[in-house]
Amino acid sequence: MTAALQQRVRPLLHGGSHSLANLAVGAAAVAVAVRYFAVLFVNAPGYGGVPVSPGLATGVSTAVVAAAAIAVAVTDADPLTGIGLLFVGVFGLLSLLSSAAALPAAAAVVLGTATIAAVAGRRLDLVSATAVALLVAALSIGLASGVGGWTGLRPAASTVALLGIASTPSFAATDWRSLSTADWGAILGGLAAFAVVLSVGRAVPFVTGAVTLTGTGVVGTSLPVIALAAAGAVTTASAASRTRRWPLLAGVALVAFAGVPASLPRALPFALGIAVLTAQEGAQ
To answer: Where is the DUF8068 domain (predicted)?
Structure first.
């Protein structure tokens, strides 16, 4: 079905399938970032009732991400990857229509993302494959702790998700074995981010805890793990910006701003981010 849909859609795009997919992913990343900052803003001390609705921002971002997943699905060259992304996108939209679809949607998102990871595993090196495994595990444990109701798994989901985000520089490296090809500017940026988060977290632990809880849904995770995730995200984003690899930047933004994927509005961008990151690494 996906292959037939791709054959019908691609001729209409006249060679612009990659542009459409990149545009859709970029729009999804922006939507998730807006939701992230909207939630932080509303929960900030001294909030004066400025008309910012986190619920509306979450609903809009979820719809945009689901639509982006469908757009990438119909333009992807691999039918199995397309099927996985269709699972993510279609069931993501269904979850917006009815709360009864939450559990089936969670299962579909995990299944779809696992399919994408399995396809990508054929072309990834060991380091990148380990990063993908961490991210998919975080998605599975996160949804089990949230939508599945196994709340005791939430600290584990938070830790695994942050470690997965910390591992994203593996997708940016052209050759992780060679120090001569390392992007030292990006690495130094990541080290600076680690130091800043660690220092701020120790100086104002309650503020740091509030920001990580409301913004990314982190529960029961140590400060060094949070700092490590920040370092990984900054390193990847810096490397992507310096080399103008905008889909890679969108991919890391999706997983970083999504945070712990314990709910469908967080799980959908996390899943799309995994798909984008694996595609970028595989394209090197």
So the answer is: 24-278
Residue type, 253: A
| Phi/psi of residue 234, nearest 5 degrees | -65, -40
Phi-psi region of 15 (alpha: psi -120 to 50; beta: other; left: phi over 0): left
How far apart are alpha carbons 118 and 139 in whole angstroms?
15
CA gap 224, 159 in Å, rounded:
11
**CB of 97 closer than 8 Å to CB of 16:** no
Using alpha carbons, select from 252, 195, 202, 193 the residue that is nearest to residue 222: 202
Report the interhelical angle of 17-42 vs 264-282 (nearest 10°). 140
- pLDDT at position 49 is 58
What pTM was computed for the model?
Answer: 0.89
Q: Which residues of the chain have pLDDT under 70?
A: 1-18, 46-52, 174-183, 281-284
> What sign for the dihedral angle of Cα 80, 29, 31, 13?
negative
Contact 186, 245 (CB under 8 A): no
Question: For residue 182, what pLDDT is reported?
Answer: 57
CB 134, CB 149: distance < 8 Å: no
Residue 222 has a pLDDT of: 93
Query: Is 218 within 8 Å of 158 (Cβ atoms)?
Result: yes
CA dihedral over 237, 264, 26, 283, signed as positive or negative: positive
Tokens of 138: 């975080």
Q: What is the pLDDT of residue 281?
A: 58
Q: In this structure, what DSSP letter does residue 49 have?
A: -
CA 207 – CA 192 distance, rounded (Å): 20
